[in-house]
Amino acid sequence: MTARRTLKAPAVAVLLLAASLGAAPPVSAAPAPRPLPTVSPTPQHIARAGADVPLPARAELVTGTTTDPAARTLVTRLLKDHGVRVDVRTKASGRAPLTVLLGPGTRPDIARALRGTDLPDHAEGYALRAAGRTVALGGTDATGQFYAAQTLRRLVTRHGIAGATVSDFPSMRLRGSIEGFYGPPWTTDERLDQMDFLGEVKSNTYVYAPKDDPYHRDKWRDPYPDDKLKELGALVDRAAANHVRFTFAVSPGGSICYSDPADVKALTGKLQALYDLGVRSFSIPLDDISYTKWNCAGDQTEFGAPGRGPAARAQVGLLNAVQKDFIATHDGANPLQTVPTEYGDLTDTAYKQELRGHLDPAVEVMWTGTDVVPPEITNSQAQQASQLFGRKVFVWDNYPVNDFGRTAGRLLLAPYDRREAGLSGHLSGLVSNPMNQEAASKLAVFTMSDFAWNDRGYDRATSARQSALHLAGGDPRVADAVQVFVDLNHLAPTFGATPWQPQSPRLSAELATFWTAYAKDPGAAVRAFAPTAATIERTPAVLRDGVPDRLFLHDADRWLTATEHWGAALRHGLAALKAIDAHDEDAAATARKAMDAAADTAAHITVDPAEHHQLGPVKIADPYLQDFVTQVDAAHDTSLGLQPLRQLALNKKAVQISDYNAGGTTPYGAAKAVDGDRFDFSTTSGKEAQPWWQVDLGAVAGLERIDLYNRTDCCADRTKDYYVLVSDEPFTGTLAEQLTKPGVWAHHETAQAGGPTSVAVDRPGRYVRVWLANERPVELNIAEVEVYGRAASG
Length: 794
Known about the structure:
Helix content: 25-40%
Strand content: 15-25%
Number of helices: 20
Strand order of the largest sheet: 10-11-12-13-14-15-16-17
Shape: flat
Oligomer: single chain
Largest sheet: 8 strands, parallel, barrel
Radius of gyration: 32 Å
Number of strands: 26
């Protein structure tokens, strides 16, 4: 007591002094409320509603006959996971430490508890208010209730339930993913996982359209076997539990006879089997087919000579018939969807004019943008597309799909970008075409779902962080590692040479800074960059230990392993540079050898053939990591007084036994294999046995290594029994003669050439030839041949 009285005296003196000076006495400020947790997808409106609501030991969940069962299950599980015992009631007792009201927003008790929080009139909208001892979750419909429960998950923290008011609804009507890629389809477990994920991110659409499911395309007339129907039924049920529309797509365009009633009947019979499983959304994609030929003579008679206009008339007749005779006559069926044959441009044609003028207005038309993989989608482009097709278009965005040549060996993990705010005013929806790797796709699809929900409120950096935290199970340290891994796998290619998202923007900038600093102060530069190298090397271990998603770790496994080795290469490379600066030749040589070995191991880790149809090495932060290794090698060579190793074949004169001829053109000439682009390729005609390709380096040079990159989108099995020949003089005669000719160096390779296949040479030469050993006629496909030696490239 005495001590307290003693401590009060100075405070009284301060107040008296303040009064004597005419100042008002200080007033204790109430603590500022902590910021609200970030909610993804970004709500249309969210604000503080007061202090956080404590999580007590017991709570009442008040439901009714119109409460959504999935939302009730989600809220119950959420509270129990946080140690709260839940009593489910139909009326609040008024005595519970916490009352959660769940149901339609118009239910009287919920409407009262919302207390001015607007209930949107949009489908799938909801209102949420957490204040005092009450949490009200009101949906515009059942899906809105489910989404309110999903938002509640984001508001629960270690402090309790954030005191918040939320009024929210989706900007785009259709949101989600379309399994529409080429290559091994997802497994049942992966599809079930996707349904749960889509529910979590408030996406309502999954389209079943795997190109390599034979019953989807080639065998579209055939009914699914019973075991396959059972699998599909389980997917339909899981989708419904997550308020996801399971959309069944069947693609008959490759063989259908539009004028044959039997084919139309077979098509609707296929749809009926899925309707009986509970499917209420259907799609008939007519993409990636030829419309310059008919599949039956009857179509020639019915529609005339094949072409854009006649093809469109045939397709419109089919789609209108399915919409009118099947969709409109089946209770609960949603409007038919289609992918037109012209799906990726803004050119007005006879085909689009026919669709615009005669396709049933109810049919949803999908559009991929201004190209198959567009570098951007703007409001102007979307508005033009809507005018061309006579309706708002439904965007099939080919991201992060990795089934085309320039994506070979890649995971595409960058957050969504270059899609303009305001697109919701021109689109009926947006779906992602993900990668062959389902779980790895979720990083990008998370951000796409965020954009589709609220395109005007989308912030790329915020969404990227939220996506990383989602994968990391909420652990910030693991999320940091996720974002490092995303940066290493950031490239998003188009069908052209220029990607629409750059590779490794953070690492590339750090490396540029490092080399600039190294030129001025090597020791300081090495010390400054060492933490980045260490972070990259330990990122795989952090992810493997901390990411709870086992399917993601399976998908990313080989890229994680490659990252470990590239991280080790960085570490050894920095050690080499440090030793070079210290003039320690032995240490520099040892570190360089370790760096080169680690980089070589990383560069030869290949994609699992069971996971993907494209063969070849996994790619990590290319070309920046390999460039770092190359620059360290050059620095070491310079320290030893050696000329640096150079790529000698680039843009040099190349020839091959013959050129593949396509329609009077030769787009796959020999020069394609020395143009610096590892994705285009040279191709021989396929008419010759033992075909060959060669490059003339222009002068004899000391050679050390030849790297062969094969075509990655197919055909790697064709280049697995071949010889690499080196000579000072031009090659003459047969392969057998060259193998016994003095002065010709030969290496026989039997490994499958996904690339790079590295051949150590250690001899001078001017001419390099790749010669297949096949005794039967076959194409020779080569994406790039890189010849490394110590001579000027000019």
